[in-house]
Amino acid sequence: MADLSRRTLLAATCAAGFMGATRSWAAPSLVPKPLVFAHRGCSAQRPEHTLASYAKAIADGADFVEPDLVPTKDGVLVCRHESNIAETSDVADRPEFANRRRTLKIDGRDETGWFTTDFTLAELKTLRARERLATLRVHNTRYNGQFDIPTFEEMIDFVAADSAARGRVVGIIPEIKNSTHFHALGFDPEATFLRIIAAHSYTRFAPLEVQSFETTNLRHLKDAVKAVNPQARVMFLMGERGQTPPDLAAKGEKTTFGDLMKPEGLKEVRTYADVIGPSLTDLIPRDSQGAWTTPTTLIDDAHAAGLLVHAYTCRPENIFLPKQLRNADGDAARNIKGSLAEIRRYLDMGLDGFFTDDPAIGRKAVDRI
Predict the structure, then answer these.
(1) CA-based torsion, 153, 158, 161, 162: positive or negative
(2) Pairing of strands 308-314, 275-277
(3) How far apart are CA 41 and CA 197, in angstroms?
(4) What is the pLDDT of residues 265-308, one digit of tens each?
(5) SS (H, E, C) the chain
(6) How many angstroms separate the Cα of 208 from the Cα of each of 39, 137, 169, 263?
């Protein structure tokens, strides 16, 4: 189980943040239980970033739900994992948009498809959402075509309404995607984000944690977000250890995510973030066969620097689990026992929160502590 230092750190952070919520809602517990973050909603059971996915996540006990945010051509923030909507909408079947398919360089990589920045919100609203992992999550394909692409504001209103109906505050943990790329195209997603959270009562008092894989925007956002919502936290997401954050790469800098995972790097991260978001394999690496190897000290090192650790992403299917926890039911099988064992291993290391595609399993793992 987590040690006293970790409990003290988390309790202090919770107390500093959640004490600001003075509404007549059911306040989040100050008991330092790890937090369950619904990754793109309940994406294991519903197509990601749809209101149905968010609804299922809340019903299944998520503490926070996650909208990834990208802009439309007219600057509206919508909930998609990336600007390329080829895999998560029916745009490829729409002949009126066939000529908008193109190749675009995002964070140094070429991507081909259809991009939100080439569509107005009105045009985007004519599209319907689809399951991204259609061959793995075949059960989700029955929802194809049922839902549209929600805006960030629609998502906030939905979470606020569902929270009011349940009498339970549900946090929002938005990720601002590809900041350097969108700024190069003339957008300012951070300014739009700040205007939106300031305009909505719910995001001024409910638990809020903003994420980015970049450092420049987090340095700007840290104080600005907390001026709107004093309990808000800022999370620095961490990519592959050998990669450089996109904003630093654009400046010609060589600092890698791996450098920032070292004790001295973590001290620097603490100047602009409250939380780090590493991948699960940064906590326990895997070998070429997908088997767990020796755990790292990243959680302890982050705690020593005054940072919380919220890792990504726990998924219930065999193919995503470490080899030691897979069963014989096939790659696509939903392995609840294995998923629970995986989550509890990370929690025993002192993890403060985790993203999961299946919040019901995450809730069960946490409630057993």
Answers:
(1) negative
(2) parallel
(3) 19
(4) 999 999 999 999 999 999 999 999 999 999 999 999 999 999 99
(5) CCCHHHHHHHHHHHHHHHCCCCCCCCCCCCCCCCEEEECCCCCCCCCCCCHHHHHHHHHCCCCEECCEEEECCCCCEEECCCCECCCCECHHHCHHHHHHCEEEEECCEEEEECEHHHCCHHHHCCCCECCCCCCCCHHHHHHCCCCCCCEHHHHHHHHHHHHHHHCCCCEECCEECCHHHHHHCCCCHHHHHHHHHHHCHHHHHCCEEEEECCCHHHHHHHHHHHHHCCCCEEEEECCCCCCCCHHHHHCCCCCCHHHHCCHHHHHHHCCCCCEEECEHHHCCCECCCCCECCCCCHHHHHHHCCCEEEEEEECCEHHHCCHHHCCCCCCCCECHHHHHHHHHHHHHCCCCEEEECCHHHHHHHHHCC
(6) 15, 30, 11, 26
Q: Enter the pTM of the model.
A: 0.91
The encoded tokens of residue 138 equal 């075949």
Q: Residue 367: name the closest of 35, 137, 97 by CA.
A: 35
Tokens 């790097």 correspond to: 265
Vertex 103 angle, CA 102 and 104, to 5°: 120
Tell me the pLDDT tens digit for each residue of 162-218: 999 999 999 999 999 999 999 999 999 999 999 999 999 999 999 999 999 999 999
